[in-house]
């Protein structure tokens, strides 16, 4: 079995070698991405498996995007050999760590975890908790009726003034982490349905939404300034966004997620986002050092 690096053209149109969520990255008319490594396991009958790695710009961490072995060639150690081949190439390029993320139904069997650990990854830890389903599954819950006091005003995110943008950018150094920035990857944000929260005329929070699918909206980022968090202002802003979406009716479904480390919001999700109509998933994270 030979381990060879693959081009975009060789992976295009090969759903037997690339996971569905990654296959769209490989189109015949695309050039080879400079920050992507793809390796195939080849024998006399063609490619039996492939691994795809996303490379960071700083050469510190690489991200496992896809690994797949064709059904007839599984349980022969090909997946493990693919990861070893990738690890050797990453080490030669100066990378120190290979990250992996995978999804499971909440409470489901962690079969991927066993494979990763057998390949030198640490025991996976929960990273993100996700709920997806119709807004109607939340009807009748008391928290949906929460309202903000009169000192707060909610406006469409598109109404953010240039001076307010400057204030929020300046606050990034002490108020919120980069992962919650309203200006990261904001090209897909819906400016009319996303919300800006003002307190006595000053911006103090946001709820950013973007279309995930034609009938599903993603609750992408929510943050309320620290001095307002203990009064459940974030939950009230969340409720306001859902009420507006339900009243409009354009998106009947939503996807909600919370980082595992965000214990208050995780407990809130576990308590109130529990319905047979909601799909419950967990994204797990693991890594392997590359000494």
Features:
ribonucleoprotein, Aminopeptidase, ribosomal protein, 34% strand, 291 residues, alpha+beta, 7 helices, 12 strands, Acyl_CoA_acyltransferase
Query: What fraction of the residues are assigned to beta strands by DSSP?
Result: 25-35%
Task: State the fourth-level CATH superfamily of the largest domain.
Answer: Gcn5-related N-acetyltransferase (GNAT)
The CATH architecture classification of the largest domain is 3-Layer(aba) Sandwich
Name the shape in a single word. elongated
**Oligomeric form of this entry?**
single chain
Number of helical runs?
7
Derived structural class: alpha+beta
Just give the CATH class of the largest domain: Alpha Beta
Strand count, sense and closure of the main sheet? Answer: 12 strands, mixed
Keywords: Acyltransferase, Ribonucleoprotein, Ribosomal protein, Transferase
Domain N-acetyltransferase: 1-149, 155-291
Pfam families: Acetyltransf_1
Protein name: Ribosomal protein S18 acetylase RimI-like enzyme
Can you characterise this structure?
The chain has 291 residues and is an alpha+beta fold. The chain has two domains: 2-95, Gcn5-related N-acetyltransferase (GNAT) (Aminopeptidase, 3-Layer(aba) Sandwich); 132-283, Gcn5-related N-acetyltransferase (GNAT) (Aminopeptidase, 3-Layer(aba) Sandwich), CATH 3.40.630. Helix content is 23%, strand content 34%. It has seven helices and twelve strands. It has helices spanning 8-11, 20-23, 78-92, 111-118, 162-171, 233-248, 263-272, and strands spanning 2-5, 36-43, 46-55, 61-69, 97-105, 125-134, 152-156, 195-199, 202-213, 216-224, 253-259, 279-289. A twelve-stranded mixed beta sheet has the order 1-2-3-4-5-12-6-11-10-9-8-7, with helices on both faces. A hairpin with a 2-residue loop joins β2 and β3. The longest helix has 16 residues, at 233-248. This is Ribosomal protein S18 acetylase RimI-like enzyme. One of its GO terms (cellular component) is ribosome. Keywords: Acyltransferase, Ribonucleoprotein, Ribosomal protein, Transferase.
């Amino acid at each position: 079995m030979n381990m060879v690096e693959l081009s975009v053209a060789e992976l295009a149109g090969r759903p037997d070698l690339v996971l569905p969520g990654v296959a769209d990255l490989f189109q015949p008319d695309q050039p080879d991405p400079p920050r992507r490594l793809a390796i195939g396991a080849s024998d006399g009958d063609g490619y039996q498996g492939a691994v795809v790695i996303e490379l960071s710009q700083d050469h510190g961490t690489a991200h496992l995007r896809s690994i797949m072995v064709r059904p007839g060639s599984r349980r022969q150690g090909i997946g493990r050999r693919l990861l070893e081949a990738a690890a050797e190439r990453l080490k030669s390029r100066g990378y120190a760590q290979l990250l992996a993320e995978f999804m499971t139904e909440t409470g489901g069997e962690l079969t991927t975890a066993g494979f990763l650990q057998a390949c030198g990854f640490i025991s996976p830890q929960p990273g993100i908790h996700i709920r997806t389903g119709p807004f109607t599954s939340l009807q009748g819950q008391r928290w949906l009726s929460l309202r903000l006091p009169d000192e707060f005003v909610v406006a469409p995110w598109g109404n953010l003034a240039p001076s307010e943008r400057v204030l929020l950018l300046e606050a990034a150094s002490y108020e919120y982490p980069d992962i919650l920035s309203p200006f990261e990857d904001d090209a897909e944000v819906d400016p009319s349905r996303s919300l800006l929260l003002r307190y006595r005329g000053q911006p103090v929070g946001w709820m950013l939404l973007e279309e995930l699918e034609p009938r599903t909206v993603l609750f992408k980022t929510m943050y309320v300034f620290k001095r307002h968090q203990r009064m459940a202002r974030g939950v009230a802003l969340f409720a306001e966004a859902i009420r507006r979406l339900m009243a409009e009716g354009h998106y009947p479904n939503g996807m909600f997620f919370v980082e595992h480390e965000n214990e208050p919001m995780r407990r809130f999700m576990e308590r109130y986002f529990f319905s047979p109509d909601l799909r419950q998933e967990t994204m797990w994270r693991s890594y392997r050092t590359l000494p």
